Amino acid sequence: MSVFFRPKGSNNIFHFFEDNEAKNKIKTISYQLDAEGKILRKWVKKGSVKQLMGAIKSFEIGQTEIIPKENMEKILDKKKTNIP
């Protein structure tokens, strides 16, 4: 399982995915983008089902959009000159 959420009007994307090292656990990668869509920063943290359900609920009420994997791959492929 892997899904990307972006709150509307936000420059952040949250990637929820299964933790391959810990069975039945979730990890999250948070990406901060600049105005051109380049990644400024990213960080990995432990995720939770509660966080994932919150993102799904936000999508359900129209506050968040789901980013297709193909679109996220384009963001990741951009020249990342701004990554520290």
Topology readout:
Blueprint: E1 2-7, E2 12-18, E3 26-33, E4 39-47, H1 49-60, E5 64-67, H2 69-77
Report mean pLDDT, rounded to a whole number: 87
For the biggest sheet, the summary is: 5 strands, antiparallel
Oligomer: single chain
Spatial strand sequence of the major β-sheet: 4-3-2-1-5
Overall shape: it is globular
What is the gyration radius calculated from CA atoms?
Answer: 13 Å
Succession of helices and strands: EEEEHEH
Count of separate DSSP helical elements: 2
> What is the terminal separation in angstroms?
29 Å
Question: Which features would summarize this protein structure in a list?
Answer:
single chain; 84 residues; alpha+beta; 5-stranded antiparallel beta sheet; 5 strands
Written description of the protein model:
It is built from two helices and five strands, in the order E-E-E-E-H-E-H. It has helices at residues 49-60, 69-77, and strands spanning 2-7, 12-18, 26-33, 39-47, 64-67. The chain has a five-stranded antiparallel beta sheet with strand order 4-3-2-1-5. The mean pLDDT is 87.
Question: Brief description of this entry?
Answer:
The chain is an alpha+beta fold and 84 residues long. The chain has 2 helices and 5 strands.
